[in-house]
Design a protein that fits this description.
The chain is α/β, with parallel strands linked by helices and about 190 residues long. The protein has helices at about 1-10, 30-45, 60-70, 130-145, 160-165, and strands at about 15, 20, 55, 75-80, 90-100, 105-110, 120-125, 145-155, 170-180, 185-190. The model has no long low-confidence stretch (mean pLDDT about 95). The structure holds guanosine-5',3'-tetraphosphate.
Length: about 190
């Protein structure tokens, strides 16, 4: 997706530890027009898959997921990362290990919002080590729902996540795949 790649090149900042700071448009301040274009791109890619639900994880997965759901006219559910008083007592849960934060956390989704008849599209902002996508796919399995695939805004293709997730048979499409940024400049994979 050229608009996204241009935005990354113009406004992304490569931080030490191979972290791409994109909080100018994705992770803190949000560019709604760009999110809309991202939603259009995912809606186009997954148009023929009879998707009934989009599943993401708070916080930064929500804007691209919401725009995709708006365009596809299907509901968006986000997995919660903290125990909340207003979460139904009957929920699905999975453990996710964050390599970035070096700790595990539990993600939760009410059973009311993920059912066996659902065909689910996962959306997330980054694919790095793949743990978030695997945790979400675990919730889909527990619900007895079907997993159509995962739409990722930025995949760090030089990390293990993409291979790990695809090896599990999950269909993954990323709008920008970064091959390398070790020199401080982002280089995209040839598509
Ligand atoms: P994984 O989800 O693919 O397993 O990767 P990892 O555990 O390494 O990522 C942990 C968090 O760091 C995730 O956000 C992920 O989106 C984010 N992240 C990973 N690499 C980068 C990067 O290069 N740049 C930025 N900006 N974020 C990165 P999170 O903890 O769920 O945060 P949030 O969604 O609440 O913002």
């Amino acid at each position: 997706m050229d608009l996204l790649k241009q935005k990354i090149l113009n406004e992304g900042i490569v931080l030490p530890g191979n972290i791409l700071k994109v909080d100018n448009f994705l992770n803190h301040q949000i560019d709604p027009q760009l999110m809309y274009e991202i939603g259009l791109a995912f809606a186009d890619i997954f148009a023929d898959m009879k998707i009934t639900k989009i599943l993401t994880i708070e916080a930064s997965g929500i804007p691209p997921a919401l725009m995709t759901g708006y365009i596809m006219k299907i509901p968006v559910v986000y997995a919660k990362k903290t125990e909340a008083a207003n979460l139904d007592s009957d929920y699905l849960s999975a453990e996710v290990y964050s390599y970035t934060r070096k700790k595990s956390y539990i993600i939760r989704v009410s059973r009311n919002y993920l059912k066996s008849g659902d065909c689910v599209l996962l959306i997330d902002d980054f694919l790095a080590n793949g743990q978030a996508v695997l945790g979400l796919s675990d919730l889909v399995d527990q619900a007895g729902a079907c997993l159509a695939g995962a739409g990722i805004v930025i995949e760090k293709a030089f990390q293990q996540g993409g291979d790990r997730v695809r090896q599990r048979g999950i269909y993954v499409r990323s709008l920008a795949r970064i091959e390398d940024m070790s020199g401080g400049t982002v280089q995209f994979c040839d598509e």
